[in-house]
C-alpha cells in the first residue's frame, strides 16, 4: 500500500506529533488550563468536522494518513456519521471548519511553546517540542497529504497540493 520510505515518514511524523502534543498538553496543564481547554477543544472540533468529510470518502477501510497525524476522523465517520449522505455544501462547510480549527490548535500549540521558550527552566524541553512539531508539519504537508486517498475533498491536502505547485 505504502512504500517503505513513505511508511518511515508516517512513523516519524506520528512519533513526533504524539510526543509534541503530549508535551504541549503537560506544559499547558501546569501553566494555563484555559489555553489547554482551547487547544483540546479545537482538536475535537477539527475531528468531528472532518468526520463528515471522511464519511463520504470512497476509500473507507483503507489506510488513512490522517490517522497517523492524530486525527480520528475516519473512526468518527463510522461511529457518529455512519452511512449518511451529506450535501456538497455541508462537506464544504466541514472542510472550512477543519481548516480553521486545525490551524487554530496548531497555532495555539506553537504560540504556547514560543511563550514558554522564555522560561529558562523549560528551554531545552520547549525547543525539542517545537522541533518535533515542525518535523511533523513538514512531513505531513510534503509526504502524507499528497498521498491521501481523499485529497480532493480534504482541506489540508488541498493546501498541501497547492503549496507544492508553486
How does this structure look, described?
With 166 residues, the protein is mainly α. The chain has one domain. The chain is 73% helix and 0% strand. The longest helix has 30 residues. The radius of gyration is 16 Å and the shape is globular. The model has no long low-confidence stretch (mean pLDDT 79).
Number of strands: 0
H and E order: HHHHHH
Structural class: mainly alpha
Mean of the pLDDT scores?
Answer: 79
Major beta-sheet overview: none
What separation lies between the terminal Cα atoms? 28 Å
User: What's the number of helices?
Assistant: 6
Tell me the β content. under 5%
Task: Please give the radius of gyration in angstroms.
Answer: 16 Å
Helix content: over 70%
* Uncertain runs: none
Structural domain tally: 1
Shape: globular
Ordered list of secondary-structure elements with their pairings:
Blueprint: H1 4-31, H2 33-55, H3 73-79, H4 88-117, H5 123-144, H6 155-165
Helix pairs in contact: 1-2, 1-4, 1-5, 2-3, 2-4, 4-5
Short description:
The protein is mainly α and 166 residues long. The protein has helices at 4-31, 33-55, 73-79, 88-117, 123-144, 155-165.
Descriptive terms for the model:
166 residues; mainly alpha; 6 helices
